[in-house]
Amino acid sequence: MAPLEQDVLTVREQLFHERVRECIICALLFASLYILCHFIITHFKKHTDFTAVHDDEDAAVNKIALELCTFTLAVALGAVLLLPFSIISNEVLLSFPQNYYIQWLNGSLIHGLWNLVFLFSNMSLVFLMPFAYFFTESEGFAGSKKGIMARVYETSVVLLLLTLLVLGMVWVASAIVGNNAASRQSLY
Known about the structure:
By secondary structure, this protein is mainly α. It folds into 2 domains: 1-136, no CATH class; 138-187. Helices cover 80% and strands 0% of the residues. Belongs to the LIMR family. One of its GO terms (molecular function) is transmembrane signaling receptor activity.
């Protein structure tokens, strides 16, 4: 191989290894936060009455809702701890700029963590928590077979209708508040 091709290959390998390292670190951090949040939620969670009756469907629904709430709490805890983690990692990098064992705390890792926390916190707030609430409250549509999928269908329809309602209210509010004639005309 030519030296130029070898340099391009080593740069590509280096970028690949940095990306894999960032993915592994993010996965390990989130897994540890998820396990910690699972222990916290199960410690404070009340024992439900219908799990003792051996109702498998309600137990499965509660388990799914518990996992969604655990995910959301892990994301929230990650969002709270991300700023101190960013500050501490910056100070460590400034204190030991040439240390080989500290170089994994680079700016790309911190930016990736910020992006993931922003994405997952929005997803949790908009989709997962309303889904968990409506999922525990649903029973399936009248006349349909009972089961988990009937509850999922009802929850999805309720979330879709809620989304349409919120979007409609935002559209009306923006047309009322807007100062141009086109927005008021679209409202009429």
